[in-house]
Amino acid sequence: MQSPPAPSSQHSPFARKLGALVALSSTELEALDKLHGHRRVFSAGHEMVHQGQMDQSAYILASGWVCSYKLLSNGARQIVDFQIPGDFLGLRSLLFRTADHNIEPITAVEASEVLASTLLGIFNIAPRLATAVLWAASRDEAMVVEHLVGIGRRDAKERLAHFLLELGARLKLVGLGSSEGYACPLSQYMLADALGLSAVHVNRVLRELREDGLVTFQHGQVTFHDLQALVCLADFDKAYLDHDGPLMK
Asked: With pLDDT > 70 as the criterion, what percentage of the chain qualifies?
């Protein structure tokens, strides 16, 4: 479904995210506006990209939450990541012949559809944006590495604490979270599929974290009670997120 034209990208989550690397000029902001020319809305559960799809578009998420996942032949699902406003969805799929994963909204979402030809044209107009988008893709790859380390080497409590802290840092970057917490639509089943745990185990660990006075996740809200202690528990070093301010002026 197509929605009305998108507003200026100047204060969009995507511009805020790229602004962590590049101090965007007015020319570059105008170029970003061109990426938001075809805005679409998707309902929860309606696939934006499906595994094996050919000649698909990429999307810049403006609002709502999305998950990327792989389906195994036995029907099991592994959630690779959750996407939030400001994230570029399916960028790799613009280069591959077929999509190697599914992208599905968790909530109703609004996103700008981006074709490969449009993206390359924007890079010709504003080449620093190509660097910024490459940075964003590299940061996403770094997060996948952290998730792999979490599943392979962190215990369940550390894994869940690290994940909640990472989400908080990502949301804070785009103006949707703070040091106190953030709204989060994820179910315990989704967390289980992302963290390699059972939903029962996730429920037990969340209870332990709450009883320890560290963090509460209830009624769609994550609330940090002792942020520093949670950081110590998870051994959370946000350097891999590279959020320390623009590297390019």
From this structure: 91
E strand map for the chain: 39-42, 58-63, 66-71, 77-83, 88-89, 102-105, 109-114, 177-178, 181-183, 215-218, 221-224
- CA–CA distance, 82 with 204 (Å, rounded to integer): 22
Asked whether residue 247 is domain-assigned, the answer is: no
pLDDT tens-digit readout, 69-83: 998 888 888 999 999
Q: How far is CA 200 from the centre of its chain?
A: 25
CB-CB contact of 106 with 65 (8 Å): yes
Query: Mean pLDDT for the chain?
Result: 88
Amino acid letter for position 78: Q
Say whether both 96 and 156 belong to one domain. no
CATH number of residue 228's parent domain: 1.10.10.10
pLDDT over threshold 90, residue 58: no
| pTM for the full predicted model | 0.89
Distance CA 208, CA 216 (A): 10
Domain that residue 204 falls in: 142-241
